[in-house]
Specification:
Layout: H1 3-7, E1 10-12, E2 16-20, H2 28-40, E3 46-50, H3 52-62, H4 67-79, H5 84-90, H6 96-107, H7 112-117, E4 121-128, E5 133-137, H8 143-153, E6 163-165, E7 168-172, H9 181-186, E8 191-195, H10 220-245, E9 249-252, H11 267-282, E10 286-288
Parallel strand pairs: 1-10, 2-3, 2-8, 3-4, 8-9
Antiparallel strand pairs: 4-5, 4-7, 6-7
Length: 289
């Protein structure tokens, strides 16, 4: 946590957005941040999330403190929902039937009514396989469509099947827009509080992801977007750091290099990263109104 940021209050106004990066299981850092926000009654008029950030943000929107942590840590420890056995059995490295049906409907029911009644706008980012561009989707009434969007936003390329929203094939929003600060600003929110899941100075190793010709052959724009992914992400990180230095955004991020993998299964590491997220958020002073 940046000491200067911890000492300087963040003023939340009608034009402040909360931006939630993805990162797979590194999203437990975000779970800690959001649980701290809920413990302190901190709300934003606009929230936008990508991939794991989109899913964790849903529990924030419904006000279900601890639900995202339960999903990412306790549910994983009990059901082992990540692994090659799921990939071999269902062509999905994650047990999406558990995560997007059994969990929200039976294990720890999602409060759709509270989410839909929340006055804040909630946007989830997906990648449109047809165009290779980001789609920014909202849903205020339809339970199934809300889940479909979250599922699409979290469908990792190669290891998860293509998902569909409104009949359109979609994948993980992080392929194209991992940190949607510019979209939040375009929507009229002049200051953003950005929750990242990587430490300051992190950059991906630059390399193209050459998609084999038999994969996604019907979606050439998607193939190009996947190939550019690491360059686009590094450019976004550079942009975030520049906006942060200019005082135009505030960033909450892990203090040290993160040892948690995108598909991490070590619950001890996950609990440690969750606790770091909670502590980082707790160190920040907010002013509302």
């Amino acid at each position: 946590m940046d000491v200067k940021m911890a000492n300087k209050p963040i003023h939340i106004t009608d034009h402040t957005a909360l931006v939630l990066e993805g990162g797979g299981m590194r999203g437990v850092f975000t779970c800690g941040v959001l649980d701290n926000f809920m413990d302190r009654g901190i709300h934003f008029p606009y929230v936008i999330g990508v991939s794991a950030g989109a899913c964790n943000g849903l529990s924030y929107m419904s006000g279900q403190r601890g639900r995202a942590k339960y999903s990412n840590i306790d549910l994983l420890e009990q059901y082992h929902y990540i692994g090659l056995r799921h990939l071999l059995k269902k062509r999905n490295i994650l047990d999406f039937d558990l995560l997007f049906h059994e969990f929200p409907e039976h294990i720890l029911p999602y409060d759709y009514a509270a989410c839909f009644a929340n006055p804040a706008r909630y946007v989830m980012v997906t990648t449109n396989c047809l165009t290779g561009e980001a789609n920014y989707l909202e849903e205020r009434h339809d339970k199934k469509r809300l889940v479909d969007i979250a599922r699409a936003s979290s469908s990792l390329p190669f290891v998860c099947p293509i998902a569909y929203v409104d009949g359109i094939p979609m994948l993980d929003g992080g392929i194209v827009d991992s940190i949607p600060v510019l979209h939040a600003r375009a929507d009229g929110f002049t200051h953003c509080v950005v929750v990242l899941t990587r430490n300051l100075g992190y950059r991906k190793e630059i390399h193209g992801t050459r998609v084999p010709p038999f994969i996604y052959r019907r979606y050439p724009q998607l193939r190009e977007a996947i190939d550019r992914r690491s360059i686009v992400y590094n450019n976004q990180l550079e942009q975030v750091e520049q906006l942060e230095a200019a005082g135009e955004i505030s960033v909450i991020r892990p203090s040290h290099p993160v040892e948690v993998d995108r598909i991490e299964r070590d619950v001890r590491k996950l609990r440690t990263l969750y606790n770091e997220g909670y502590a980082c958020a707790a160190a920040i002073h907010f002013k509302c109104g």
